[in-house]
Amino acid sequence: MAQNREFGIGELSQRTAVNIETIRYYERVGLLPSPPRTQGGHRLYSSAHRKRLVFIRRSRELGFTLDEIRNLLGLVEGSYACGDVQEAALAHLKHIRLKIADLRRMERTLADTAARCEGGTAADCPIIDVLSRAPG
Amino acid sequence: MAQNREFGIGELSQRTAVNIETIRYYERVGLLPSPPRTQGGHRLYSSAHRKRLVFIRRSRELGFTLDEIRNLLGLVEGSYACGDVQEAALAHLKHIRLKIADLRRMERTLADTAARCEGGTAADCPIIDVLSRAPG
DNA sequence: GATACAATCTGTAGCGGCTACAGATACAAG
DNA sequence: CTTGTATCTGTAGCCGCTACAGATTGTATC
């Protein structure tokens, strides 16, 4: 037996660890459906909203953009094929790996350069040197 | 003998591979000093600007924020100690490493999950599963 | 009921780091 | 002098929130 209890935005926020402002933002941009309201206009959420919001949050944590999440949610809504979901995940994985590669290049350059730094005088600071030259 | 030739924003853009709009933006936010102008109001740059802009671009490529770059430029302007520059670089390196760690967590989770995916039916897609659960 | 105080409401503006226009001038070549 | 390009200013948009202000509800206590 499901607990069909409804709750306000504050409780939803606490139970999902998503900011109240962010929840309203997700509603505005169409990620979270507009919930029913009290007579006074306060939003009333149910566990379906909570689940969806957890899904969104988790996807954000894994680096999906809101657009990608919209896509995923679209898949989940319909009768999706697991392969479609996998495809989206692998595409995103590719993105992540590119970003990692980028960052590791930066890391190496910076670490190498900083290692050559011996706190000497101004004229020959290797870091400034590196920053002053276009990359080869 | 230095070539004291002056040139327009278009040439500066080409020689530094920085967008024209971005150059003007850097001027607006105080990263690049306002150059002299022609009578008609067109900007006239010299090699000092070019060098500074290359420095900015290179720093951006290494992931420094505009604020950090302002800082670095401030150091370079004055009679900086190499140690100060190194400190800034190492602080930034720390940031980068945190980001890499974040991304690698995402990568692992996604790769692991996607690997368990066999293109089966909807009900038991492991990716959806992962996304539906708060991280533990 | 009245009252106090918390929760929520709407709407708007800001962040960083650009990018993309529109509409008006300026400059260089023929 | 005309044509065509380069540049000018100013404004608005992108993403994913976050932070207000000022008004209104909801709830607990007396």
From TrEMBL, chains A, B:
Gene3D superfamilies: 1.10.1660.10. Pfam families: MerR_1. It comes from the Bacteria. InterPro entries: DNA-bd_dom_put_sf, MerR-type_HTH_dom, MerR_fam. One of its GO terms (molecular function) is DNA-binding transcription factor activity. Residues 6-75 form the HTH merR-type domain. Keywords: DNA-binding. Transmembrane segments: none annotated. This is Cd(II)/Pb(II)-responsive transcriptional regulator. The lineage of its organism: Bacteria, Pseudomonadati, Pseudomonadota, Alphaproteobacteria, Hyphomicrobiales.
